Give the backbone structure.
Amino acid sequence: MNQYLAKNIINLAVAGHGGAGKTSLAEAMLYLAGVSDRRGKVGDGNTVCDYDPEEIRRKASISAAVAPLEWKNKKINLLDAPGLFDFEGGMCEAMRAADTALIVVSGRDGVAVGTEKAFAAAEKNGLAKIIFVNGLCDESARFYRVFEDLKAQFGPSVCPVVVPFIQDGQANIYINLLEYKAYDYSGGKPVAVAMPDMGDRLEGLRTAIYEAVAETDDELFEKYFAGEPFTPEEVIVGVSKGVKSGTITPVFCGDALLMRGMEQFMDGLCWLAPSAADKGAEIGVDVDGNPVEIAVKEDAATAAIVFKTVADPFIGKLSYVKVLSGKISTETPLINMRTGNTERVGKTVMMCGKKQEDVKAITAGDIGAIPKLAGVNTGDTLCAPARKVTLDGIAYPTPEMRMAIVPKNKGDEDKVAQGIMRLAEEDPTIRFENNAETKEMVISGMGEQHL
């Protein structure tokens, strides 16, 4: 894969309620971009992002996975986050590394608790938000009911961009309201067709767009309030600015399993989602506790956050990093701000699911991984010795459930403890202690499935 500048990199956390089709959507995007030569299915256990044996067995994501793709001269780093609440730690990691949250909603089930949690996490992390309503080819899918629920739940900032034209219960035609173009997918590939007659519904959708645009600017709000129509240019510029600033949440739709609406969605994503450079600076803290602005610049001193760790018994430790400024290569001296130790980089890799591709460097705005950094943990800041700065770590949820562990064989307490400590390295929502009062080994986690 080519190296990209920060202005052409989109870091996208794919989040939402369990079962909404996040991994299937990621799979469709990777297939369409030519990363994979066949579309995997969650049920068959052959997707790019759900590669762990436990994920294949459960048919659900349990940790965040990274998969990059190229589309329209942009690099999109997909961060596929788990939807199950017991594995919420994975969503926290994906949100920390992303600049935009892609919230996937089931066209059948609509807004669920996981939708609200993903939206709240995106707000908390200051991310742009884009919604994709998935599974519209299901007979029980109801896009317009789901859209009304989204507006009721998240307010007038929810803005329709691509909507279906439903005929005889079938969602084969998808309309881009900003371009005012319609595409028919009934033959498999999209074919441009004449705009269908949507009656009063079209007027209602246009009103929803105008409402969202009016929220982005005081002048536009006054114009809307006075009943003056917006020009097409004002609408397009307003939506684009609004998404990047977080004041507009655009809604796309389609069906990831049948590849409906995917091209329109990915084109819209490249146009609307903020790049790593757009996201702007983060505020870190120097050694004296003073705030320092870390701008996304390739030629600045290096600063990176470790947002995920894999402790593999065969390949060793793998630290996933998002580089904020500068670059990381085998020639980059790095300080771990938590320990004060100098870290030596043996090699840098790009991850696509479980596959590794060696790269010369991980540059500002991009995401990659570094093998065999033994002393580095999730949440650590790696930076250049010339500019020592600590970035915000990851705020994990507190473990809710505790259980005592008894080894199967007497005398295996140390082996069990070491195994759990290695698990806790990968997943900081797992806690472990020897309870002095009960003389038991106690493990804490997010819930029964987690433990």
